[in-house]
Design goal:
It is a single chain. With 116 residues, the chain is of the alpha/beta class. The chain has five helices and six strands, in the order βββαββαβααα. The chain has one domain: STAS domain (Transcription Regulator spoIIAA, 2-Layer Sandwich), CATH 3.30.750.24. It is 39% helix and 20% strand. It is globular, with a radius of gyration of 13 Å.
């Protein structure tokens, strides 16, 4: 998993290049690795290589969003594939997870939508 800290927004961009599917069995490691990070800083997760997501993957993203929000940080996803974007839209997470993709200056903008 690669990560870089962008200076303009103080948000860590994490690109798990080895992650092709965010599905049951694959999500646990992502949550375990990223939960401490989202609790300490703003995180943008690049899902450009993720071609498939299921309920476990959606749950993982919600968990990371909630952990970030509880800690006063922003969590969002960028560079989603067409299929993942469709799934996030169907379940209503596009408004929550994709709404911050332009790196708002105020954290409140990231939390305008409740997680559930």
């Amino acid at each position: 998993m690669n990560s870089i800290l962008t200076n303009t927004t103080q948000t860590r961009l994490i690109a798990p290049g080895d992650l092709r599917e965010l599905v049951r069995g694959e999500e646990r490691e992502l949550v375990e690795r990223l939960t401490p990070v989202v609790q300490q800083e703003n995180v943008t997760l690049d899902l450009g290589h993720v071609e498939r997501i299921d309920a476990a993957g959606i749950s993982a993203l919600i968990s990371l969003y909630g952990a970030a929000r509880d800690a006063g940080h922003c969590f969002n996803v960028v560079n989603v594939t067409h299929h993942v974007a469709e799934i996030l839209t169907i379940v209503g997470l596009d408004r929550i997870l994709l709404s911050c993709r332009n790196a708002p200056t105020a954290q409140e903008e990231c939390f305008a939508q409740p997680a559930a």
